[in-house]
């Protein structure tokens, strides 16, 4: 997947900074809604540049939780299993409406810091958007272990990154400080939940908003630039 | 909760960017759909409503 590039109607691309986690079902849905919102602008769409930033939703997640998503959430929230199943069914339905085939029965709960390190490596090598999509699909659709270096290197190679360089980046922890810098920046901005979108460095959009919200915001910002 | 996700979609005539009371944010917040889901920690929810998965 290439970065979204459309015909220019303004001199500089509109920057969209997105704070999100891999283990965030509404981040993937929000990603699809943003993409749909941009596509909906058609020929009027301005040039946009998207950059993802790291956010760790649940730092105390075990590195390798072996139970099911239902068990994980029921235990953590102290909620009845039936209620958790209903919630997962709801999220799965909304994801399906966005074109995503979620399989919570496959999801392997884990810490996502290594995946975020790989996203920074990918950004440095011009493949962040491709890898973000690959990691979200791995987590929510395929049940991939996004904390394991061998699997992460595989995902990196699939999107065209150098496997050896990716492994070296992960094993060295070279990008760990960049991940923490993103998380700290979110804190400084008062971002407590994700997905969180910052458009043109000025406008904030919180949550998995409908595509129409993104379309309108981008069109309005583009119009303000032209005016 | 599932109905709220769909029902809050703004109409085309709504101004996209309206100030909100997000005092902690340095950004001008786009009001958007108040039922849009946000995740914090292990839970996802409509702000002000019951936690979701």
Detailed description of the structure:
- The complex is a heterodimer of chains A (227) and B (53).
- Chain A has one domain (14-209): Glutaredoxin (3-Layer(aba) Sandwich).
- Helix content of chain A is 52%, strand content 10%.
- Chain A is built from nine helices and four strands, in the order βαβαααααααββα.
- Chain A has a four-stranded mixed beta sheet with strand order 2-1-3-4, sandwiched between helices.
- Chain A is globular and about 55 Å long.
- The two termini of chain A are 32 Å apart.
- The model of chain A is unreliable at 5-10 (pLDDT under 50).
- Chain B is flat.
- Chain B has a three-stranded antiparallel beta sheet, with no helix packed on it.
- In chain B, a hairpin with a 2-residue loop joins β2 and β3 (43-45).
- In chain B, 11% of the residues lie in helices and 19% in strands.
- Chain B has 53 residues and is α+β, with helices and mostly antiparallel strands.
- The interface between A and B is large, with 46 and 34 residues.
- β4 (203-206) of chain A pairs parallel with β1 of chain B, so a sheet runs across the interface.
Give a count of the beta strands of chain A, DSSP E runs of length 2 or more. 4
Radius of gyration of chain B: 12 Å
Average pLDDT of chain A, rounded to a whole number, is 93
- Looking at this structure, what is the CATH superfamily of chain A? Glutaredoxin
Tell how many strands the DSSP assignment of chain B holds. Answer: 4
What quaternary form is this? heterodimer
Largest interface: A-B, 46 and 34 residues
Helix count of chain A? 9
Terminal residue distance of chain B: 11 Å
The succession of helices and strands of chain B, N to C, reads: HEEEE
In helices, the fraction of residues of chain A equals 40-55%
Which class do the helix and strand fractions of chain B yield? alpha+beta
Biggest β-sheet strands, sense, barrel of chain B = 3 strands, antiparallel
Which strand order spans the largest sheet of chain A, edge to edge or round the barrel? 2-1-3-4
Region (Disordered) (chain B): 1-22
Domain DSBA-like thioredoxin (chain A): 16-219
InterPro entries (chain A): DSBA-like_thioredoxin_dom, Thioredoxin-like_sf
Protein name (chain A): DsbA family oxidoreductase
């Amino acid at each position: 997947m290439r970065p979204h590039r459309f015909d220019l109607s303004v001199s500089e691309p509109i920057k969209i900074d997105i704070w999100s986690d891999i283990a965030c079902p509404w981040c993937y849905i929000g990603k699809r809604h943003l993409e749909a919102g941009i596509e909906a602008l058609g020929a009027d769409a301005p040039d946009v540049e998207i950059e993802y930033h790291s956010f760790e939703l649940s730092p105390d997640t075990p590195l390798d939780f072996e139970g099911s998503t239902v068990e994980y959430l029921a235990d953590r929230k102290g909620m009845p299993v039936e209620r958790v199943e209903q919630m997962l069914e709801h999220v799965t339905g909304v994801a399906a409406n966005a074109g995503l085939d979620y399989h919570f029965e496959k999801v392997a709960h884990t810490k996502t810091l290594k995946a975020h390190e790989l996203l920074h490596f990918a950004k440095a090598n011009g493949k962040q958007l491709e890898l973000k999509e690959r990691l979200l699909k791995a987590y929510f659709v395929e049940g991939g272990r996004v904390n394991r270096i061998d699997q992460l290197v595989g995902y990196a190679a699939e999107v065209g990154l150098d496997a050896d360089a990716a492994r070296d980046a992960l094993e060295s922890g070279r990008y760990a400080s960049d991940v923490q810098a993103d998380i700290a920046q979110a804190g400084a901005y008062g971002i407590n939940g994700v997905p969180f979108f910052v458009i043109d460095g000025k406008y904030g959009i919180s949550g998995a908003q409908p595509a129409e919200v993104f379309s309108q915001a981008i069109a309005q910002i583009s119009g303000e630039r032209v005016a | 909760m599932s109905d709220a996700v769909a029902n809050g979609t703004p109409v085309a005539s709504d101004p996209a960017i309206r100030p909100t009371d997000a005092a902690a944010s340095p950004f001008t917040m786009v009001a958007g759909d108040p039922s849009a889901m946000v995740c914090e920690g292990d839970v996802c929810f409509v702000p002000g409503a019951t936690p979701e998965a």
